[in-house]
Amino acid sequence: MRLGIMGGTFDPVHYGHLVSAEEARVQFGLDQVLFVPNRYPPHKTLADVTAPEHRYSMALMATVTNLHFGVSRMEIDRPGPSYTIDTLLALRREHDADNLFYITGADAILQVVRGEWERAAELLTLCHFIAASRPGFHLAAEELARRNVTGRVLENVHVMEIPALAISSTDIRTRVTSGRPIKYLVPESVETYIMKHGLYRPGGSPAGAALPAL
User: Fold this and answer.
1) Where are the domains of the chain?
2) Cα(173)–Cα(168) distance, rounded to whole angstroms?
3) In what order do the strands lie in the sheet with 128-132?
4) How much of the chain, in percent, has pLDDT values that exceed 90?
5) How does DSSP classify residue 90?
6) For the whole prediction, is pTM greater than 0.85?
7) Architecture of domain 3-168
8) Which of 5-14, 120-129, 148-157 has the least mean pLDDT?
9) Alpha-carbon gap, residue 103 to 20, rounded angstroms
């Protein structure tokens, strides 16, 4: 099975994530795309992000209508900060490198080749990487090669053009905080969940407040 892995904080998940995942699925002939919300990214603490159970619930709601999408708890249930290499090593026990495709943004793949991700050189040997470009961020192979400090050949790094969606989780959180609309930026079920639980609003649900495990 050709498996796509869509990692991230998903705080919250939005249509940019979903479009990227679906485009990767079609372009690379993936059988499934697995969304993997992290417990918290290494450069932040658990208190800096919305509780994992909230983000997991929103990811489930956003993906449930696509039979080719799934959501994994593997990073949420693993203690400590979430490192992509730990996730890929776990998945490599069931899949070979030719059948794993890690989907990320063009800016993130630049961080990888600059050696900014944990064990970046080893990470690049574990799967294919799909770098989704966004408006105003065109990534050429020459740029990747110029920035590459890992010593690895980047034949398994693929750049993917996606429809012009300039949506970010940061902007969505800011819009909610300031009382601006997020309709058509996130699935309706996610918008309803954010409002119901008071996420991203001053005095709303604390970032690190936990919900019972689903």
Assistant:
1) 3-168
2) 9
3) 69-71, 32-37, 3-8, 100-105, 128-132, 157-160
4) 80
5) H
6) yes
7) 3-Layer(aba) Sandwich (3.40)
8) 148-157
9) 8
